[in-house]
Structures are given as structure tokens and as C-alpha cells.
User: Fold these one by one.
Assistant:
Number 1:
Amino acid sequence: MKEPILVVLAAGMGSRYGGLKQIDPIGPNGEIILELSVYDALQAGFKKVVFIIKKEIEKDFKEAIGNKISQFCEVVYVYQELDKLPAGCALPNGRKKPWGTSHALLCCRDVIDAPFAVINADDYYGKSAFVSLYDFLCHNDEERSYAMVGYILENTVSLHGSVARGVCSYQNGRLTNVRELKRIEVHGDAIEYTLDGEQWEPLAKDSLVSMNMWGFKETVLDRLEEGFLKFFAEDVLANPMGAEDLIPVEVGRMLRNEEIEVHMLSSRDKWYGVTYQEDKPVVKEGIRKLLEEGQYPQPLWK
């Protein structure tokens, strides 16, 4: 069996947050969220971490986490740049926005030679999620069989603005579809979404959503490239400055085409994440409690 790899999506711009939330100190000793996630992943069994970053943040990123963990695992850096495109795709003049999380995974295909997990750099997933995902990647050898760790929608929204979430449909422990909703907001006691900015529709608070914690086989990269080429020919043509190709969108396409199956895994732990600066105090308090309860050593890297 090839040892599973952890892939970290850390190249986002953080426009709503107003800075590089991937490396913003959250813990009482200056820990960043990603440190806790990587620690949990290594404890679960992962031995290689691939960080997908932008070249311009490399120095700060290495100081914040990369150099700290390099003695505990293999660390690889991949750079998500706008002009890193499959053959036949040309960068539109004036494009500044990253191409999205599907493109991020395509950027690292040269360093992926084993089943791999994917996480966001700025989300706290909890220990049990990494244990479940590592176990799945080690013991499921079907090339078209993937996994996702789902979280309860109510626990992942912000009181300070809209969030984007992949809302999941599932049956008999298998994901059947993912709808990427880009504007979900809390309105009083309700959680609602809008597609046009005018009409709002309710969402069940206990809906399962994707927080970009996936378990993939290497074969997903060929499927993602196929989807990206279609995205480039259609979506980029219609919206050259803003179109994004996202992992939940591509997984939803694969599911509807019956190319894959996705096992729904769950986590017993609470999710934490920051979309806006105003979210930060709640997350800081949650992380402080985890450290005080002894769930992580202090200092984290000994």
C-alpha cells in the first residue's frame, strides 16, 4: 500500500477576511489553525504533507508552519499560479482571481503518487476526521471510490456575513450530489441561501455540508482535468475575470455522471473556521479550550 498524502489548500486570497488567514495566529501561544490540523494528521498516520501556496507568501508560510514540521514529516511545496494551465488553455488578459480549488489540485499532480486527503488551511476539522480519512485511504483500494467528511451546516455558518458551502445530498452512506451555494446567511433563527441576491430559500440547519475535507485516489486528477477543460471552454468564456472551478462542483458532476462513488464519513469533533475577522474571537476561545483540556501538547512541536 502506498502511504496516503495530506494536501493542504493554502493559496486562497482571503478577500473577505482581509488578510492571510492561513497563517494568522489563533492559539494562545501563537498557533495557527493549520498547525493543529497537521498535528492531527500526523498523529493519524500521515507522513507527507503537500502545501499548495502562492509563491509570494512562501517565506511567511514557511516561518509560520513549514519549517516547524519539516523534522516530523516530508514537506513539499506546490505553487498555484494563474498561468499554470493545462495545454489548450490561455490566461485571459487582466485575470487576477485564482482559478479555484479544482485548479489547485491540478497544480500538484506531479507530486501526487498515492491516495490523498485534501483540507483547507484555515479550517479546524478535529482529530477523529483525520483518523477516519486515513483509515479509508489505507483500506479502500477501489480507484473510483472516494470519501468526504461532512459537517453540520449550523456549525459552519458565520453571524457576520455570507459563506459558501457545498450542500450535500446522500443516501445509504453515499454522497449523491453536492450543490455549491455561494451565498448562505443566518437570518434570525433561520439559515437561508440566495442564487440571485433577491429571493431567499431556507436550508435545514442539520444539512451536511462539505468543508473541503476529501479523500481521493490519484485517478481523480485525470477527471478533474477533464472537468477543468470543460469549465475553461464554457464558464471562463462567459466570465473570464471571475469564473472559479471548485472541488465540490466537480465532484457533483462526477456523481451525476456516475463516474465515482463517495463515502460519507463523519466527525465527532467541532469544526472551527474564520471567514471574517469578526469570527476570530469565537475560534480563539475554542482553540484555547482544546489546549487547556490537554488535547494538544504545549508547545505543539517538541
Number 2:
Amino acid sequence: MPLCKRLELSHSIEIKTTPEKMWNYLKNPENYTTMHPKDHIKLIWTEGKPFELGSKFYCEQLIFEKVKKYNAQIKEVIPNRKIVFTLKFPVSLFSPEIKWLIEPKGSNTVFTAISYFRAGHLYKKLFKKSMKKLFEEHDRHVSEEGENLKKILEEKN
């Protein structure tokens, strides 16, 4: 059994908007807190411009009602379609990458948030209860984020 394997958690939501409008909303740093006002605290681009390949950012958000701080770097960008960012150490030990997909579907757009986690026999033995809580928290967070994004973008149409 592998020490670590990649586990993927995803959430998708269909929104009455265009990929271009969604992209413009997501790439505006000021929208980070409006996307999830309950959990998102701040986002600061520390190097480069928002969502440019190689650019870096720092963010803070609530997880389990505690402030968590992250540093990340943009790994892949396809404007109006895809954003991939990698999380930096120590978060990368457990959650190395997050991907946002923007896919046209008729006159709507599907937004998919995919989070990757390291899992495997060792993690299950050491962190079984905390992993279950983390996955539940992840599902709550991305579901609320998607619903907020839907409400905001559909009101703008």
C-alpha cells in the first residue's frame, strides 16, 4: 500500500453567466472576501498580477473557526477556462494543489473547484478522524463558495 496517494475532492455548480464574466470576477482580488464572506479574510498578491503564470499570493481564511494562513503560486492558467495553484509548505504536505475549472454549458457556465489531498495508509492510521472532519469542512466550504458565486454572478446578469 502506498505511503501517500492523491485524493481528489470536487464540487461543481452551474451558473447563468459567461466564462468571461466569471473569469473577470475571480481574477479581481477584491472579490475574494465577497466570494465567501463567512470564511475568507484576505488575499494579497505578493508577486506578479492576479492569475498570471508564476504569480504568488498570500491568503487567510477560517477553517474550523480558526484563521489559517496560506502561500500559493499559480501553476497553470488558461484564461476563461482554468486556474491551477499550488500551496506552499507546510500546507503542501497534505494539500498540494487546487484547480478551478470554468466550462461553458449552453448559455451557462459550470464552475468546478477541485482540491487534491495526500492520503494513504499512513495518513488514514494517523489522522483518520481529523481527515474525515477536514473533508466535511471542505465540502461545506466549497458548496457555500459555489452558491455565493452563483448568487453574485447571476445578480450581475
Number 3:
Amino acid sequence: MSDKLKTKFLGKTIKSPLVLPAGIMDMSFSGLNYAVQNGAGIVTSKSLTLEPRMGHKGPVVAEFEGGLLNCMGLCNPGIEDGLAEINQFKKHSDIPVIVSVFATNILDFLKLTKYVNKSKADFLELNLSCPNVFDEFGIPLSASKEKVGEIISAVKKISKLPIIAKLSPNVYDISEIALSAESAGADALCLINTVGPGMLIDTKMVKPVLFNKFGGLSGPCIKPIALKLIYQTYSAVNIPIIGMGGVKSGEDAVEMLMAGATVIGVGTAVYCRGIEVFNKINDEITKFMKEENYKKLSEIPKLKKL
């Protein structure tokens, strides 16, 4: 991997700007290590809850011409078993790890934070934006700037790790949500999560393709939405952004950087191009930089802020 791709994120030097987002690989340390071996610069755990979750009944993933529709339902082994895998991973790798956590209230976020404080994780991600558990928990927390501010402010008081707030694209004004997160103490932002919910129909069976009927959209179809929201957020805040949504090539990754992202999440593309996609995108970014005569990643220009 080219040294040109080295960059910094929240005080850590990473060998690649590519991030494995939450929920893409399984929760085993070997799965996370596999992503690292194939070129990921940062890896993220599944969004962990206080108790294990089975998730939704299948089918939970459907492919269509624009990407994927999924309603996984936050399946995870629970915070204790999840962190055991993270700690095991850190015995084998010095790659930074983001532990993602999900709750529906401040008290549970605080409980989760206390667990993460005792782990070997490098960063704490607060998943405020999961759309495919709408049937259980209602509107994502990040739809409310007040709730976002309250949760981050409370967690900030006890967290020993930098806090990343994962925001939803399904909001009226992403800028005000992002500003609320920054003002409350978020050290970085992660956006976007899947768009939707959406729906697909099996015309032969005359029923929804997903058992849960609705799911979040990911993949190439959401890239223009992601770029627009990342750019709006970059124009409003002064903290780093993990930009994601439809990235499956080096060109896509460069667009994310130009829109204001500091590092880039690659999720659905793992399904489309295989786990090797990280190395492929790293090579494609390096090729772009050579063609445009950029010596290091930081030389790739950002768009002028709004």
C-alpha cells in the first residue's frame, strides 16, 4: 500500500483512509482482521446493545439494480461478548477500532459507554440513526437536534474515548443536527447511514421481498444524497467526518474527500466487489493521485464551503 494514502484521524495515523463501517462484517475478531488484511485503515464493530439481539426474521437483504435494501434489525452479540472480540482483535493488530453502540435513551448509552471505557477500543461511535428498527423504536434519535445534543453531552462527561456521532440522512436539515452534535462535544461525525426505509415487491408472490417489509437503502443509488449531505455538514462544522454512502470505487472515494470527508466508509461495496474492495479502492485512489500529481492525500482539494 502506498505511503501516499497515510492520513490522520482524531490523533491516529492510519495507513489508508478507508473505514469498515458498522454491521458489514460479522463481530468476530478474525472478521475484522480480514478487512485489515485487505486494506482497511480503520474497522468498526457492529452496533452493540446492552443485551444480545437476534435481529429481524429473514429475508433481511435484497439486491436491486441500484444497490441493497436491508432490515437486519441490529443483530449483535451484546456489549460484553462484542467487546471481548474487540479486545482479542487488538491483541493481533494496532489498527484503530471504532466500537459502535446503539440505545434508545441516555441511561442506556451511558451504561454502554462505561463498558467501552474498559475495552481496548480507540473510538466510541454513538449510532443515533438506524432506520431499520423503526418498527421497534420509532424515528431515529438523530432526527432531533435536542436529543442528539442531550445524548452526546451526557456521554461526553464520562467517555474516555473520542466520540463519533453517526447521523441519519432522513432529516430536514442535516446542518442543524451536525452543529448540535459538535456543540455537545462530538469529536467527529459519521454519515450517512442507509436511506429510507424503502420497499421491494415480489411480483410473482405478491408480497414484499423483505419479511419485515421495509428496509434501508445502501449502495450506488444513495451516493448523490450522501455527497450532498456530507458537503452541507462539512460547510457547517469544524470536526472530522467519516463520509460514506455508495462508495465502491476510487473515484467515489475521491468525491467523498472533495465533499468534505476526512476518511471514507466502504460498506455495500464489500458485497458487490468482495472484501478485496479495500485494496482495489486504495489502488484506484493512488492511481488518481499519480495522474493528478498529488503527492499526499491532504493535497486532494475540498470544495469551497457553502
Number 4:
Amino acid sequence: MNYPHPIIAREGWPFLAIALILALGATVWCAFWSIPLWIIFVFVLQFFRDPGREIPQQAGAVLSPCDGRVIKVERRQDPYGQREAILISVFMNVFNVHSNRSPMDGTIQKVQYFPGKFVNADLDKASTENERNAIVLKSAEGQIVTFVQVAGLIARRILCYVKEGDNLTRGQRYGFIRFGSRVDVYLPLTANVKVSIGDKVSATTTILAQL
């Protein structure tokens, strides 16, 4: 759900508090041995950063729902929207921003959660075997875009704050995945893809495709 950007994602506040308390306690006890704990604190701080983003306003633009690297652009069956589609997969490492944002304006037709495995999110089978959460979104013009949060080898928690019937606006924050994963985006076959395998993309600011 939308909220004023606090720079650090709310999902990280408990982790930051614990890391800070441990680091401060170790510093009081022995400054030298506290160094590893301060490194952990800095890592947690950067992982949960959640900066505001500029939102492109081009009509029909499908924005990237996450930060990361494009690892797949191919024609594939969309198992959630029951159609042939263009699949764009974006892999997120532990140094990417992990806040997930809506790729376009629309109404949620379906939200489906699937428990599963935690194999490396970079592998092809992660899309169908890993824990995942799929959202099917329909625009006012009738275009369907499906985007799927996929857990990874380290990621153990998918968070989704929306439900069927909710309206999303492009760039709206709708979820979070902890500690590395990927997001699959299924587009209509008529979409004009704007990215290639290997491209680095940013949530909201990068246009994946034009409908």
C-alpha cells in the first residue's frame, strides 16, 4: 500500500533496530570486535532502503516492478492469466532495492499465492517451483499484465499488501521480498518490449514495454 516514503522500508525497521542494538552493545564492550556487527548494520540499512522514484507518464507504458537485471525475454504461457504472453524476468540480488511497485494503472483481477521451494531465483524452474505470489492486473483499456513475486535461495518471505478488486496506480508500492529473488512480468503478445537480457532496470523508472 502507498505511504510517504521514509527512505528506509518499514519492513526493515525491526531488523535495523536489532542490528543497531547489537552493534552499540558490542561497541561498549569492545570497539574492535564490534566492527563485524557494524558491517551487518550497514548491510541491513542498504538492503531496506526505499527511495522515492520518478514515475514516467507515457500512455501504455509498463514499468519495471522491481530493481535488478533482466535475465529472460521470451514467449511463454502465462499460467495465471491463462494465455500466451511475453515473459520478462528481472533478477534481484541482495544489493538491489527490494520494494515492489505496480507496473501500470489497473484493477486487480486475481491474487494467487503458491507455497514452494527456494531454489536459486536465477534458475528457470524457479518460476514454477519456488514460493511465489502472482497478481493479474487489467487496465482501463482491457490490457492484462501479470506480475509474479518469486522467492529465491535466500529470500524466505514474500509480502503482498493488495487483494482482488483493488485499484493500483503505476509506481504504487504493493509488496516486498526479503533478501534476493526475482519478479516475472507477463505481457500481451502485442507489447513492444523495450529491454533486453542483461539490462539493469530500476523499479518504476524503467519502462519494460509499451502496450
